[in-house]
């Protein structure tokens, strides 16, 4: 895929807005594999289902307001080129590995690296390495566009992209302030911030190109010069770096200050504090990386693509992404049992 620095950077900003806002307002980490596993097999909490609903609903909102033209690539077309067996194998590996390794790209890379979590630093290094090796050794169905082919959007589109990020941030905080003032606190009010943060996250994945397997493959083909697409490195600049700055700012405040100025009154600070690095973490991250390197999407993009397939009524894409998600859930279930 061509190098798309503007779209991917703005997508990274949207990922930052959603994950950092959720952390500051609820004290929770936006780790999608953990959220999916919890919703299906463990706590079955409402906030987890609200996030999953927001991720799947994102493409419907994007389509309704005409944002799909801003997305790089064609995620559903890329997804349909992947064979059923490969989807199933990769899904099991992604589900099993993300559960065993306590996270995936969202929880460990986007959120964990920004918190300088030792577990996330190690897990990210392991799964990225195994994904790169797998992507370079495996045969893939996608055509390759040289990395030096850059696609810069027109000025009007660039302006629109940054406007979307600004509007999303303003809308979230406006909604957050409104909901905080509402009494009594109903279930709908408690779960709405999660749903809305997931909508923004879904949009960030689509604009960055992370929902397109061919786009992710181009990034994982590093260090092959002809195949490598550096676009997703811009997620680090637009998402991880701002998250790190924001997390440092949040943690400087006392618990009383967090609760009075940012934390939603019905929530409590629950950011993971584990720092140990064990064999489960390393093995799980390695298995997850192999699965990611085989199919080039992970739990978050898969759920967004499910929503896109439903919106577009694309039955072939729906079968592909449903098969992957089903296999991923089976892998998570197996890891829970073991």
Short description:
By secondary structure, the protein is mainly α. The chain has helices spanning 5-26, 32-41, 46-64, 75-80, 84-100, 105-112, 118-137, 155-180, 187-208, 213-220, 233-252, 255-261, 279-295, 299-312, 315-337. This is Sulphur transport domain-containing protein.
Question: Can you walk through the features of this model?
Answer:
By secondary structure, this protein is mostly helical. It has one domain (5-265, 276-337). The chain is built from 15 helices and no strands.
Index terms:
338 residues; mainly alpha; 15 helices; 71% helix; globular
SSE blueprint and pairings:
Elements lengths: L4 H22 L5 H10 L4 H19 L10 H6 L3 H17 L4 H8 L5 H20 L17 H26 L6 H22 L4 H8 L12 H20 L2 H7 L17 H17 L3 H14 L2 H23 L1
Helix pairs in contact: 1-8, 1-9, 1-11, 2-3, 2-15, 3-9, 3-14, 5-13, 5-15, 6-7, 7-13, 8-9, 14-15
Keywords: Cell inner membrane, Cell membrane, Membrane, Transmembrane, Transmembrane helix, Transport
Protein name: Sulphur transport domain-containing protein
GO cellular component, one term: plasma membrane
Proportion of β residues? Answer: under 5%
What is the domain total for the residues?
A: 1
* Total helical segments: 15
User: Percent of residues in helical segments?
Assistant: over 70%
Which spans of ≥5 residues are poorly predicted at pLDDT below 50? none
**Large-scale geometry:** globular
The radius of gyration is 19 Å
Can you summarize the main beta sheet? none
In total, the number of strands is: 0
> N-to-C terminal Cα separation, in Å?
39 Å
Mean residue pLDDT: 87
Order of secondary-structure elements:
HHHHHHHHHHHHHHH
Structural class: mainly alpha
């Amino acid at each position: 895929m061509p190098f798309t620095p503007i779209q991917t950077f703005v997508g990274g900003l949207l990922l930052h807005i959603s994950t950092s806002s959720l952390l500051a307002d609820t004290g929770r980490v936006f780790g999608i594999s953990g959220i999916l596993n919890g919703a299906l097999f463990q706590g079955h909490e409402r906030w987890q289902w609200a996030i999953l609903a927001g991720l799947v609903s994102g493409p419907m909102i994007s389509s309704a307001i005409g944002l799909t033209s801003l997305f790089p690539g064609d995620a559903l077309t890329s997804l349909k080129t992947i064979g059923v067996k490969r989807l199933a194998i990769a899904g099991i590996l992604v589900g099993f590995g993300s559960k065993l390794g306590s996270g995936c790209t969202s929880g460990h890379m986007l959120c964990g690296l920004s918190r300088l979590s030792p577990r996330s630093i190690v897990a990210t290094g392991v799964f990225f390495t195994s994904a790169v090796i797998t992507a370079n050794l495996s045969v893939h169905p996608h055509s390759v566009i040289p990395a030096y082919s850059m696609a810069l959007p027109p000025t009007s589109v660039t302006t629109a992209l940054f406007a979307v990020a600004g509007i999303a941030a303003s809308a979230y905080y406006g909604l957050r302030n409104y909901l905080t003032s509402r009494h009594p606190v109903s279930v709908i009010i408690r779960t709405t911030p999660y749903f809305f943060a997931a909508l923004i996250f879904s949009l960030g994945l689509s604009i960055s190109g992370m929902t397109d397997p061919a786009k992710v493959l181009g990034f994982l083909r590093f260090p092959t010069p002809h195949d490598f697409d550096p676009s997703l490195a811009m997620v680090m600049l637009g998402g991880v770096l701002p998250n790190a700055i924001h997390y440092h700012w949040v943690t400087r405040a006392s618990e009383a200050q967090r609760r009075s100025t940012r934390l939603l009154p019905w929530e409590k600070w629950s950011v993971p504090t584990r720092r140990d690095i064990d064999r489960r973490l390393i093995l799980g991250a390695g298995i997850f990386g192999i699965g990611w390197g085989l199919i080039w999407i992970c739990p978050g993009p898969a759920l967004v693509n499910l929503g896109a397939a439903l919106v577009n009524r694309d039955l072939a894409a729906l079968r592909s992404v449903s098969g992957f998600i089903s296999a991923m859930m089976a892998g998570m279930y197996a890891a829970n049992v073991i």
